[in-house]
Write a structure and sequence with these properties.
With 200 residues, the protein is mainly alpha-helical. The protein is built from five helices and two strands; from the N terminus they run αββαααα. Helix 1 packs antiparallel against helix 2. The protein is elongated.
């Protein structure tokens, strides 16, 4: 009888221990959804960013000669990298969301937690690099560089620059959330109870 009571207490304690990580998993899942929406929005806005304008380049008598110029994201390698980095972060979070929602029967302990933490850090690092590169080019487009004699373009392509800035802001929000997710993944990996449960 005492053994049965001991087993009941042990089962109850194990159920309580398993219930706590589920709450934290819901927090991580919610953060992943927000990060996915942020990085996917940044990817779409930047990938569709284009503005075409006509400029008067000369006058022949009283007839103006115009030239039509287009500003596109793929004309700047930093913006292309930005799109690739955010698309990668979106895909990573989409896969992690699918694993959390569709695969609760799998046991994500031991090495699996390590792989998830590593992938989270890689996605965060790539997003950070893309944001940094795009921020540099955005600042150059807005203010130019008088020392290198690079002219600014945002005074001519305002809509293009505004959309790029919006994509950057949303992407930085996604990056911050990815940073939080990475920290939570590392904490989950290093928890003593997780390590003990992972060992057979």
């Amino acid at each position: 009888m005492a053994l049965e009571n001991g087993e009941k207490v042990e089962v109850a304690l194990s159920e309580v221990a398993e219930a706590k990580p589920k709450k934290k998993d819901w927090v991580v899942l919610s953060l992943r959804v927000v990060a996915f929406l942020a990085t996917a929005s940044a990817t779409i806005v930047m990938a569709l960013n284009k503005q075409t304008k006509s400029f008067v380049v000369a006058n022949v008598g009283t007839t103006p000669i115009t030239a039509t110029l287009a500003a596109k994201f793929n004309q700047t390698p930093a913006f292309v990298f930005f799109v690739v980095a955010n698309a990668n972060a979106s895909l990573h979070n989409l896969v992690m969301i699918a694993m959390d929602v569709l695969g609760p029967q799998y046991d994500y302990k031991g090495l699996r937690l390590l792989f998830i933490a590593i992938l989270d850090m890689m996605a965060m690092a790539l997003a950070s690099a893309g944001d940094g590169a795009a921020t540099f080019m955005s600042e150059l487009g807005k203010n130019g560089n008088s020392h290198a004699r690079w002219d600014k373009i945002c005074d001519k392509f305002q809509s293009y620059c505004n959309r790029s800035g919006a994509a950057l802001v949303v992407s930085f929000i996604g990056f911050i959330i990815l940073l939080i997710i990475s920290v939570m993944s590392i904490i989950k990996l290093l928890k003593p109870n997780r390590i003990n449960h992972a060992s057979p």
